Amino acid sequence: MAGPFETIYYSILDAVGFFLKKPAALMLEFAKVAAIGMIVQVAFIFLMMGLGIATGGTSATDAAMIAFVAAAVLIAIAFFIATTAVSATAYCIVDNMLRQKERAGIIQKALALLPAVAGYCAIMIGLFVLVFGFALGAVLLMGGDAVLTIIPMLIALCIILGAVYAFQFALPKIALEGMDAIGALKSSYEIVKKNGWVVLLFDIILVIVLFGIVLVLSLPQGAIEGQMVAAGTDVTAVAALLVAYVIFSIIETVVISLIAVNLIYFFLMRIGGIPAVEEAPAAPSKKRAARR
Fold it and tell me: Shortest CA distance to 268 belongs to which of 175, 183, 180, 163?
């Protein structure tokens, strides 16, 4: 049986080997996912702006403000569900290319995943609200003691992190196996329970890698933001810089999604979370396996 480091090492080789076989096709498909996700974000911004205008903005009455907050929360939840469904299609892209399946359209696939993704999001949001709601209630009961009031919040944070850790593979299971929300959450829990330490080690490595990439890719975006401020009222310059900023944002999203989804997919395959293919891209040779 392979050790934790060996499992992660071969998962990385699998992901890199697969990407090197079809880099252009993968980047194109992931760019489509990123572009659709950005369109959803823009739609969300316009909806919020329209909602603010409809409720009277800063001159709104108390009733209108309550309606604004309620509608804003519902729109935000709908936005979260929609973007999650779109991002989940990235797992389908990898799976279809690897197993040479017929490719479904991204929007079509996202719509098909929407009911299960909505259930998954509802459970996770409900858990978050419930846990931090109890923590906030405990804080209010404890009064103003700073030392005591921080304890319930820390406990709530630990519970949420534990839930994220236990259910981290629910979304891939929904996307790849068509599970409903409850089934996917149970499946993810069983996978993590069976492979606890290797999953934890993989998560730590993945977070470090993604954090480093975000830091590097944020440098040009920060420079563009500075130039936009310096451009002032120069409409042409601001428009050009805005286009460049959007392009870099898409590139950043594509790179992060490519790395995260590929690594998670092949790691899941290595630990038995999803069926393996006949020839894994970077599987160790028979001689090497015999030596182990």
Answer: 175
Instruction: Output the pTM of the full model.
Output: 0.84
The helix, strand and coil proportions of the chain, stated in percent and rounded to the nearest 5, come to 85, 0, 15
CA torsion, ordered 119, 124, 127, 129, to nearest 10 deg: -100
Quote the strand ranges of the chain, DSSP E.
none
Cα–Cα distance, 203 to 208 (Å, whole number): 9
Query: What is the rounded (10 degree) CA torsion for 145, 148, 153, 158?
Result: 160
d(CA 286, CA 241): 53
Query: What is the rounded distance in angstroms from the CA atom of residue 119 to the CA atom of residue 122?
Result: 5
Instruction: Give the pLDDT band of residue 277 (cuts 50, 70, 90).
Output: confident
Distance (Å, rounded) from C-alpha 113 to C-alpha 64? 34
Q: For residue range 12-48, what is the model confidence (pLDDT) as tens digits?
A: 999 999 999 989 999 999 999 988 988 888 888 888 7
pLDDT of 2 above 80: no
